Amino acid sequence: MAEGVPFRGGGYEARPRRWVPWLVFAALLLLWHVASSRGWISANSLPSPTSVVLAFGEMIERGTLQKHLWESARRIGLGWALGTLAGLAIGLSMGIFSLARAGLLPLVSALFPIPKIALLPLFILWFGIGEASKVATIAFGVFFPTVIAAYAACDQVPRNLIRMAQSFGLPARHIVWKVVVPGAMPGILAGFRITASIALILVVAAEMIGAEYGVGAFILATGNLMQTDHLVAGVAILSTFGLLVNWLLSAIEKSVLRWR
Questions:
Q1: What is the pTM of this model?
Q2: Fewer beta carbons within 10 Å, N or C terminal of the chain?
Q3: Domains and CATH numbers, the chain
């Protein structure tokens, strides 16, 4: 009797392994604790997990954690929103209209490689040392990756879908909102993950240059004072913030891309 052919059409589908991240995280914490307790790592170089937890408790008790986190989150939210809205408008225009693509693509290609934090002194001259210069740095840094992600995502929408919609006589605006934008959404959301990380990097750098409050300012101050336990706590805040943003974007992807 002939044996059945095993199914080979899984398509590398991702399977959830919810316990794996927690296991890896616990293993790293255990290794860190053992290395600190046995003196393999100097406390001046890397404090123990216990010291970092105590530093967290001290920050919460004094209210500094909430203050620094709120200031950074506010700057990131405003800068990311402004840069994303402008980037989507320009990127989608470049992906849809040939004239916009021809006129703006060389300009975007020329400005995109510039390190955006290098422009902070210029933004300070334009907008002052206050919040506007920091928000402008974040928005400018988010703008160009969003433009490229939206433009590339539009360009990769299958042309046969657009031609099919045109053959049925759909108006251009319906083709854009019902065919092009949904087809480009996976690429746009993937770009959001990149721009969220860029915004986090830029806000830390901007706060280190000139800010009284914010996670970046807190990390710089504790580093200058050699308070390594508070410094590592600040880095852990950034990591936790990044994880929360990633979780939020994953939830948005599941909601927006249900058709996949």
A1: 0.81
A2: N
A3: 52-256 (1.10.3720.10)
